[in-house]
Amino acid sequence: MTNTILVIDDEKSMIKFFEVTLTREGYRVLTGGSVQEGLALIQGEDFDLLLSDIRLGDGQGLDLLAACKEKDPDIPVIMMTAYASPETAVEAMKLGAVDYITKPFNVDEVRVVVRNNLRTRKLINENRELKKQLKKDKTNNLVFQSERMRKLIETLDRVARLDTTILITGESGTGKELIMKYIHQNSSRADKPFVSVNCGALPESLFESELFGYEKGAFTGADKRREGLFESARGGTIFLDEMGEMPLQMQIKLLRVLQEKSIRRVGGTEEIPVDFRLVAATNRNLEKDVAEGNFREDLYYRINVVPVQLPALRERREDIFPLIRFFMEKFCAQCGEETKEIDGEAMASLDTYRWPGNVRELENTIERIVALTPGTIIGVENLPPHIQNSSSKPEESSIHISPGGIDLEGYLDGLRFKYMKKSLEMTDGVQSKSCDLLGMTFRSFRYYLAKGKERGFFD
Prior knowledge:
CATH topology of the largest domain: Rossmann fold
Helix content: 40-55%
Shape: elongated
Largest sheet: 5 strands, parallel
Strand content: 5-15%
Strand order of the largest sheet: 2-1-3-6-7
Radius of gyration: 30 Å
Distance between the termini: 33 Å
């Protein structure tokens, strides 16, 4: 991939020098002749290295250095001047400049300085991507940016290292098994088995033999001894999903296993020690089930040592856009297609929909959209009808203007700022991509961005 270098200098001859020299080296070159032009380019463009004169006609190049470091601390910045002094060099280095060269300089010097710093930049990026991949593998594709989920993950990080029993509750589709795998992968048992049991899918007659195993001859068809899931999970973690569906008789036996840390196979008499960590999950209200006699109270308190409540997707709406982007990239890659873009109207419909099926419904929806949309742009017409029809389009009769009037411009600005903020989150702050997403010109986007910052909306 071609590296992009941003050059800011108020001497046209120097701009020409860098354009010729760096283009010959295979770089893409962006140029500006003032602090104001430099600031606009820093905010609006992606680049890999900044070369800036320290003295410019309308200000100081150190302001560009600060703006660049605010955007991305890892972008290498090289300051240039014809008036070298130890004081300015020290100040530039304190602000984050990686190098300081004095005019006049020769072509070879420029080539070496640029090449070395771009190589360092590449190594930093590769290291960062490696860390991201390691973290992604460890978090098992957990995607979030909401404060609520951040705090929940912080809690899990604390309890994962312990052998404490955890009860995960939440609506269907909120990602309880993903959270469970995160706990296991961050625990001291991570290199041991992870065994998942769907209690709602097991027939009552098979519960005991599946969980505890059986001896040869224990029942018709038991022609050999078989280990149960608790033995299979030795040293690791056993995850009991849909815990509220477990029959009462089985609850009694599970309580004994938790107390004694041993099991007895069906048809056997030997007590077999088992070492495991238990994590349970349910979408039912177990407290209500206890009160109604459908779940044992002693078992409830035994498994509910650390309760973890997973919020519904509608309760953490900040995560909708990151999840859409994640699933879009995932399914487009599986289809061997370029990642599709979602236009503003379609994105608004996806954002306002309540997602009763939570993350699972969102994932299935994006998979369906990717499979059925032939082009690269997804419009509202490509969404499932029930999501199209859920868009919050106010009826004329619902519009209300108080006798004191309404600040319509202020209201519309606030709505515009919200969509701009969402688009910046989706594009990792790349303004040009945000403009495309919202159908705005770059000039208009910058105008409203500055206006929103003045009002404290983008702080």
